[in-house]
Amino acid sequence: MGEIQLVLDKVTSILAENPHIQQKEIAVITPWREQVWKIRTALRKAGFKGVDVGNVEVSCLMLLDD
Known about the structure:
The chain is an alpha+beta fold. It is built from 3 helices and 2 strands, in the order αβαβα. A two-stranded parallel ribbon has the order 1-2. The protein is globular, with a radius of gyration of 12 Å.
């Protein structure tokens, strides 16, 4: 099973098992920019438009801003 499918399965599982969790509360972080685009596209196609996808660089910068 590919990494993108694992992410889709995990997001599906989290939302199914935890109805109080919203898509906007889930973030997928990867070190590779190209993988960000591939995961984001797959999530959007599966209806998970609220799940945030970013790379490590951006996530670290966001943490430093807080």
